[in-house]
Amino acid sequence: MEILEAFNTDVLVVAIAVLLALAAFKLTQWVPVPAPALLLIAAAIASDLFPELGINVATVERIGIVALIVILLDGGMHVGWRRFRGSFYPISMLGIVGTFLTAALVAVAAHTLLDFSWTTSWLLGAALAPTDPAVMFSVLGNREVGGRSGTILEGESGANDPVGIALMIGMIEYATSDEGSAWSIAGEIAVEMAVGLVVGVVGARLLIPVMQRVTLPREGLYPIRILAAGALVYGVAATLHGSGFLAVFIVGLLIGDVHAPYKTEIDRFHTALASLAEIAVFVALGLTIFGPTNLWDDLPEGIVLFVFLALVARPIAVALLLLRVRLRRAEKVFIAWGGLKGAVPILLAAFALVGDVPDAPVVYNVVFVVVLLSVLIQGSTIPLVAHRLGIPMRIVEPEPWDVSIRLREPGEIQRYVVGPRSRVLGSAIRDLPLGERAWVSFVVQDGKARQARGSHVFQVGDEVHVLGDPDDGRVLQRLFEGPEHGDR
């Protein structure tokens, strides 16, 4: 009974923590501070006031890995292959080359400015080089950024995590083994990335026909199948000594634009699960800060590296690597300022603690300070910087109500917007020459969905949703939108 009572207490504490985390997200509507920063600070304070809440770093490492799998899978689906392909060069340059360049610049600064050993300096560089998808998707999640800068930041945050993780693992092996060398680390990283890429592409190619053709008895099983497939891809890649994180992100990218049954439900499920993973990982990381280390002793070093990273290393990397990319200077400055740090750098520092690397507590402290400052300062000022630079950014208002139609077969629903030369202008639905091959399911007029009554009279701008044979698409388009659209 005592074990059960303790478990019940744990359930109560977790439930309260999640509700408080949701309150923190709500608070960000009035306070320009990203929710991850509030979660980190609140968890750190809670662990100081109630030491029994503290958890060990090994447990946080496992939580972080699972959370990152979920976040990268959802992030890849959110970006999608079409958007990623349009910005492939800048994303790959920043995500791969930029990670190594940033790590090197930070390592040099840590050694020359702060007198850390080269090994510790490179550990700090490897941990602080990648940007974080959890923070990036949290900050930009409800904002639409004009141009390619938003896509580049989101794509980079997913692409550079596997590189940073591989680099950190290589540095830990180098720091704890007498046989390691720079060339061996480079070789291991190359193998990890190659295996992760191949497993991710193959996994996605196998998953896509399953998504489109293999049915399941209940709607709620479809999102779970994607989650299980993502975990499977991660496990296969990791077992083959590849980057499981890269494999998961690739799977998310390649299935993001796929048309499949219950795709909307799949997207919503994984977005909700990624939000829960974000809460879990930042709360867990915050609960460690007063346990294994003393943050305040290394606060000055963290401040110095944050300033160097935000104002020197990141701008240099962006300027050099995006030199040939056709972006306005303002967009490049925005990308430089938008290199947010978050859970991934702290997780990489936790790898050093678990690996019993010399100076690992110092690395963990410094990384935590840099991340906290990055989320607080850079994350909070993203909208302001975008406004000052003239980067279009708008809040995407949530739409809690939607109208949807379930179809047994795809390709039967078609959407048209009534144009100024449309034949249906001023006509009622009952007067349309549709016959039995097509019928109007509903109409959106003035932003409101209206039932398709026979008496409805069409106006310019009406969104008409028609069920019919796809072969009649051109005829229906000419009817509703006008001859200039149907004759293309």
List keywords for this structure.
about 500 residues; mainly alpha; single chain; four-stranded antiparallel sheet; about 5% strand; about 65% helix
How would you describe this structure to a colleague?
- The protein is mainly α and 488 residues long.
- The chain contains 17 helices and 6 strands.
- A 4-stranded antiparallel β-sheet has the order 3-6-4-5, covered by helices on one side. It has a two-stranded antiparallel sheet with strand order 1-2.
- α8 packs parallel to α10.
- The longest helix has 32 residues.
- The protein is globular and about 80 Å long.
- The model has no long low-confidence stretch (mean pLDDT 83).
Short description:
This protein is mainly α and 488 residues long. 65% of the residues lie in helices and 6% in strands.
Fold topology:
Layout: H1 2-27, H2 35-49, H3 57-86, H4 88-114, H5 118-128, H6 133-140, E1 143-145, H7 149-176, H8 182-213, H9 221-239, H10 244-255, H11 263-286, H12 299-321, H13 329-337, H14 343-354, H15 360-389, E2 393-395, E3 413-417, E4 438-445, E5 448-451, E6 463-468, H16 473-481, H17 483-486
Antiparallel strand pairs: 1-2, 3-6, 4-5, 4-6
Helix pairs in contact: 2-11, 3-7, 3-10, 3-11, 3-14, 4-5, 4-7, 4-12, 5-7, 5-14, 5-15, 6-7, 7-8, 7-10, 7-13, 7-14, 8-9, 8-10, 9-10, 9-11, 12-13, 12-15, 13-15, 14-15
